[in-house]
Design brief:
Blueprint: E1 6-8, E2 17-19, H1 30-47, H2 64-78, E3 90-94, E4 110-113, H3 115-131, H4 134-164, H5 168-195, E5 200-207, E6 210-222, E7 225-230, H6 235-248, E8 252-257, H7 263-278, E9 286-288, H8 298-302, E10 307-313, H9 316-325, E11 330-334, E12 340-343, H10 349-361, E13 373-377, E14 381-383, E15 386-388, H11 390-405, H12 408-414, H13 421-437, E16 439-442, E17 461-466, H14 470-473, E18 481-487, H15 490-504, E19 508-512, H16 516-529, E20 532-535, H17 569-572, E21 575-583, H18 586-592
Helix pairs in contact: 1-4, 1-5, 2-4, 4-5, 4-6, 4-7, 5-6, 10-11, 15-16
Length: about 600
Amino acid sequence: MNTTTHFVPERSGDKPSVTAPSEAACGADLYARHLPRFEAAQAACRDRGHWSAFVDHPELYPSAVEARRAGGAAYQAQLGRPFELSQPGTSAWLGEETSPYTGQPLGIAYPQADADALFTAARAAMPDWARAEVNTRLGVLMEVVDVLYRQHLFELAFAVMHTAGQSFNMAFTGSGVNALDRAIEALVHAHQALQNVPSQARWARPFGTAEICLEKTYRKVPRGVAVCFACATFPTWNAWPSMMASLATGNAVIVKPHPACVLPMAISVRVFRQVLQAAGFDPNLVTLCLDSVAEPQGKRLVQHPSTAIVDFTGSARFGQWVERNAGQALVFTETSGCNTVVLAEADDLDAALRSLATSLCLFSAQMCTSPQNIYLPHDGVLTPQGRVSVQQVGERLVHFIDQIAGDPRRAAMMLATLQSAQTQALLEELTGEGARRGQVLRHATPYVHPEFPQARTASPLLIKVNRSERALYGEERFGPVAFLIVCEDAQAALQQACADVTEFGGLTAFVYAKDPGFIAQAEEAYAVAGAQLTLNLTGPMPLNFAAAYSDYHVSGLNPAGNACLTDLAFVSARFRIAQVRRPARPLSCSKEG
């Protein structure tokens, strides 16, 4: 067991204390303990308004200075040594993570377990968990959320920063607090789905002169072992809700992290296991299955005969393979797509372009919701002052990007780093293609990080092309690249954008227009295409921000993914219903009627 101590900020009004991470709360009162938070989350899911269970800025965290120091120390103490995680089937040690900030290997070796042994252990762990009351399971999982927040949030932020490449603040907020909110959101929908099925019923009906009375019982049966793929750039944001959805409905979970981003999920798995064990359940309900870039295990896990559920976040190519080859397993995917912007008309064009620049820069556009393709009429964007030409739009967008990239401290906060060297290579390739097929309006120049001069960085590449160059822009180009796509008119821009979403996928869409008829047409077209639409948004909120409890993330209606975070469909099929009927006394049946 890991004996490292962590600073634990207690609930408001309590003094902070130091608690070992294995000191997880347990007992039948867990659900009652977390019920106020859970009920608030239920209300938020019903109302779809703003609510968060946690403070979403590191400086607002209880005893923030000491919590950050302790979290940084916990991260540093893990470097260059084996990661302590006792689970079945360990046969070797493996680790190949490198920090995008320092360029140095983390030097962490993780236990590599035999997949068959993990499946065997997971199946053996399930019966007691599946028999537990729904509220017992929810209480344990809400305790996991609480332990992650109170004991590991800063440690996780540093882990995400130095594997995924996010800035510290984004790692704390997006991969910490927001991801925890999404986890609770999945539990709310799991609770709703499970409560929709009664445990028993009495049924009576006349057949001829006789009345048949039956007692019926309904058992909610988990599907089996879920395999959860965590991506390299936002590991916890998708994985935590997926894990919670499977566990809440009685299943076990095997977590398959990306080889370049293992630490955040290893910490998570260890916490799940510790809380489960402390609550009296088999910790093998949650295990970690490691592989390497040279010897991937993903396909084997997807097609393993014991795999009942697959949650996949990652590339469209492998996501489509998963959907085609998962056999009888239930599959939930969130992959990638061409997130589109139609720029037809704006009251304040500079405000719109500033918002676009911010979203193009945020985490170097390594977010599944980042805009990529900007479609506009060839005669420019209509404003109250007249039309602004395509070239002027491009120049002004470049100006706003330069304002961010030219300020090293602001760039460090917003652009952060490139998670993979492959993204750097892609930018170089696209620069050449852009020059041949269109016009490079802005090169993907690096910035010097003020704290980490060796950090792998790049600011957005902006390429202007004609609508006909679909082979260049008609797929997700992962990283800080955007295309200014010149179309015949606003109608053609909308048509092309929606066609690209339909064929190649798209999670988010953005339209700037004033004509009510055009806006209505855009709403209908994007609804059919299945991209979540934002209209005429400007201001400090990033365009692609997705709010837990309010925004539905992915529609499942186009190739960008078949699942949604988070709705009932995300959890309801993770269990099935087995019923038993037996004769009941007619008198009882009549009284029930």
